[in-house]
């Protein structure tokens, strides 16, 4: 099977949108969100929502899939941020 420009664009945009999940994994691993910029991910959520609606309007599968994944991944960072925002290494040591 030969991949055309549409398929390559779909694969690339899909893989690219998983990037925020790496930040989520880091927050969970470190059990702190001190160094994470919440506003960055809030803005990504807003922009991703607008692009998703545009993709739906024009019927573009790459835009719809990529931005749906982006919304899920960015929302995961925001949720995990609030779970770990007040956690520091010092408070983790006190718990053990």
Q: Looking at the chains present, what oligomeric state does this protein adopt? A: single chain
Task: Estimate the strand proportion.
Answer: under 5%
Are there runs of 5+ residues with pLDDT below 50, and where? none
Q: What structural category do the secondary elements indicate?
A: mainly alpha
Number of helices: 5
Radius of gyration from CA coordinates = 17 Å
Distance between the termini: 55 Å
Please write the string of helix (H) and strand (E) elements: HHHHH
Largest pleated sheet: none
Shape: elongated
Number of DSSP E strands? 0
Mean pLDDT: 86
Helix percent band: over 70%
Please give a structural write-up.
- The structure is a single chain.
- With 96 residues, this protein is an all-alpha fold.
- It has a domain at 36-86.
- Helix content is 79%, strand content 0%.
- Helix 3 packs antiparallel against helix 4.
- It starts with a helix and ends with a helix.
Topology, element by element:
Blueprint: H1 5-16, H2 19-30, H3 38-58, H4 61-84, H5 89-95
Helix pairs in contact: 1-4, 2-4, 3-4
Give the structure's gist in a few sentences:
The chain has 96 residues and is mainly α. It has helices at residues 5-16, 19-30, 38-58, 61-84, 89-95.
List keywords for this structure.
96 residues
């Amino acid at each position: 099977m030969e991949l055309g420009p549409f398929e390559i664009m779909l694969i690339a945009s899909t893989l690219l949108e998983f990037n925020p999940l790496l930040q989520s994994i880091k927050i969970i691993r470190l059990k702190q969100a001190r160094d994470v910029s919440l506003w960055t991910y809030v803005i990504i959520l807003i922009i991703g929502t607008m692009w998703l609606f545009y993709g739906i309007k024009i019927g573009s599968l790459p835009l719809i899939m990529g931005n749906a994944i982006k919304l899920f991944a960015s929302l995961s960072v925001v949720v995990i941020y609030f779970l770990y925002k007040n956690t520091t290494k010092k408070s983790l040591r006190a718990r053990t």
